[in-house]
Amino acid sequence: MNLNEVIGRRLKAMRGQKNWSLDQAAKATGVSKPMLSQIERGESNPTVSTLWKIANGLGVSFSSFLEENQPAIKQVNTADVEPIENQDGTFLVSPLFPIEPKKSFEIYAVELLPGCHYTSEPHAPGVEEYLLLQEGSLSLTVHREDFQLSSGQNIRFAADYVHVYKNQGRGPAKLIMIIYYP
Question: Which of 97, 133, 141, 175 is the residue whose CA sits 20 to 30 A from 19?
């Protein structure tokens, strides 16, 4: 089963758990009814931004669309994980360890290609992001405050504000992102 089908099946199940129509889900998420329907049928390749809108509107984690059950031991090769991209393909998010029951975090490998400028909408109150920059450089703006990171530098911030990731360097910026949900 491909990633679009997994996302579609999970979205449909979550909407069903809430007893929401497509109209109700569209109003809560800010994503159009036709787009939600296409995603549920596995006919659309949703962007990172679209999945974040849906997750925030449904009150679930981003990774809850990606995996249903977690084994007791899971080994992940980043190269084997299919990334989810933003509209222009410069912000790639690979879910390494999706959120699990009784755990309050999820872990991603993120790559920002040169020229990337990605704006993330605020997460739910209390959510924090931890960024561990492995390679390259990153400009980060959180609630109108700017931060410059280079390889080996890390940052934690309250993610319930708009935050902007930028790669103004010549090479890719690669990082590990941990999202904590209180």
Answer: 97
Strand partners, 107: 97, 178
Dihedral sign computed on CA atoms, order 140, 145, 146, 150: negative
Quick: pLDDT tens for 66-110.
665 555 556 777 777 788 888 899 999 998 887 776 778 999 999
Phi, psi of 88, deg, nearest 5: -100, 5
3-class DSSP assignment, residue 152: coil
Give the tokens for residue 58: 């449904």
- Are residues 125 and 160 in contact, defined by beta-carbon separation less than 8 angstroms? yes
Cβ(64)–Cβ(99) under 8 Å?
Answer: yes
Identify the structural domains of the chain with CATH numbers, from first to last: 3-65 (1.10.260.40), 78-180 (2.60.120.10)
